[in-house]
Amino acid sequence: MADQELLLTDVPLAEKADWKDLPLLPEPAEKEPFNAATLPQGDVATATEAEVLKSGDGVKLTADVDFFKEESTKVADLSDSEKKALEEFKQLIQEALNKFEFTSPPPSLPAKVEDTVSEAVVEKTEEPIDDALKLSNKEEPLKSEAKVSETNEDKGVENTEKSNETTPPAAEKVLVAVKTETAVDDDGAKTVEAIEETVVAVAVSATAPSEEGVDKNAANSEPTSAAPEEVSIWGIPLLADERSDVVLLKFLRARDFKVRESFAMIKNTIQWRKDFKIDELLEEDLGTDLEKVAFMHGSDKEGHPVCYNVYGEFQNRELYQKTFSDEEKRQKFLRWRIQFLEKSIRKLDFTPGGVCTIVHVNDLKNSPGLGKWELRQATKDAVQIFQDNYPEFVARQVFINVPWWYLAVNRMISPFMTQRSKSKFVLAGPSKSAETLLRYVTAQELPVKYGGMSKDGEFETCDSVTEITMKPSAKHTVEYPVTQGCVVTWEVRVVGWEVRYGTEFVPSQEGGGGGGYTVIIEKPRRVVAASDPVLSNTFKTSEAGKLVLSLHNPTSKKKKLLYRFKTKSL
């Protein structure tokens, strides 16, 4: 199938579309709300049907939606309802900090133990009471005091043994009281009264200490409540300055400004970070085996850092086995991916108006595809974590070298995606990948392997690149003025090449140097696509003139021409 490009533009994002739209693996997005594990979701809008435009090299798919524009991170730019939600959110967080809700351990069980003790006292006291009542109702005359004492002593011993096994010390006090009262009084009813009074007294004495303890604990906790706990996320306190507002806005937007849901999300995130030991993970050495799988390189035209995810690296069987062969290795991959994201986030600017999102370029060239279960599962786990704990960090998702089947799947699931989600998606087939990336990333920031000119060498990122579109079957020349006595260095690239290229130096007529003859630096030749993508050269001259690059595009397609120059004095 011919190379295709699907360009999906922007609208407000649903709660769950942020990381779900960013599969670490070429796996179609699922039909679930924003919180794939919980990201909030707004209304699901039906996608506009793509237009099919027949062109020379195949089919181009475009969606009739607007390009994505990030929401402001400045409080002053928020609507009144959004400002109100932010204030309510901050109040909830302040209350939670005052109560130590973010870091306090699970509640202990002293209250339950106390209840158990009380129940045990009641159970053990019922038996002697019933025995006493039986004695009072008997028709036979009461036996002598000695015999009654003896009987009750025996019962007391038995009950004491039982209570020693199952009842706390408080129960023993009850039984001793029963024995004493029976020995003193002959009247069974009186005995019962004495027992009841004793039981009440003991029960009160058993609970009294715990109440005092509660009062003491409350008194001790009063000074603590005056100093709220301090909780930070991504190195920024939850309530400190303007940067805190930027962080809180991410959670609010992830939940469509629903305060309670946003609070639950940030609370769960903080607990997850604690359980996952993020601070320790940042210091952990996980090796360099996966440094080519995901890496940061340069920025886009709006200043967002760009992350490249290269799935084709997993075609290396040794690397694949080393990364996914068992559960332990998959967990290590997950930790590495989270560590990589955490380090990337720490470099963002959380000041209002600053750049605090990342552009992701997902290269599907030679991707293992959906057949690799281990990779799919690891990716799914990572995406789930990102959705739940890293809201609103994706500025745009650009998928390049997309196979035809992926485009087809995307068209099928498009109606189930929110408009905001689709607005962050850009998909391009192999022949359109470089051209698509150059829309969002300048040539000097784009790696050579992806159609740019960013590489180690004479030039740096600050040396801008000129971009020109060459018409089909047309010639194009680039002239660069050269002053007397200097060294000129240049780089030139045509995306996809298949172009004739040559270079020459033409002396200035006023200079008279070299007898006014043109100097051929590089003879015109055909440069094929398989050639070195970036051609560079140097020319030293003692006279003024101009450097001329001559290019001829014999094909029927437009070509993107990139070039830059630099001069040094002799």
From TrEMBL:
Pfam families: CRAL_TRIO, CRAL_TRIO_N, GOLD_PATL1_C. GO terms for cellular component: cytoplasm; membrane. It is found in: Cytoplasm; Membrane. Keywords: Cell cycle, Cell division, Cytoplasm, Lipid-binding, Membrane, Transport. Residues 22-42, 101-169, 207-227 are annotated as: Disordered. Residues 121-164 have a biased composition (Basic and acidic residues). PROSITE patterns: CRAL_TRIO, GOLD. GO terms for biological process: cell division. Residues 283-458 form the CRAL-TRIO domain. Residues 434-567 form the GOLD domain. Signal peptide: none annotated. GO terms for molecular function: lipid binding. Belongs to the patellin family. This is Patellin-3-like. It comes from Cucurbita moschata. The lineage of its organism: Eukaryota, Viridiplantae, Streptophyta, Embryophyta, Tracheophyta.
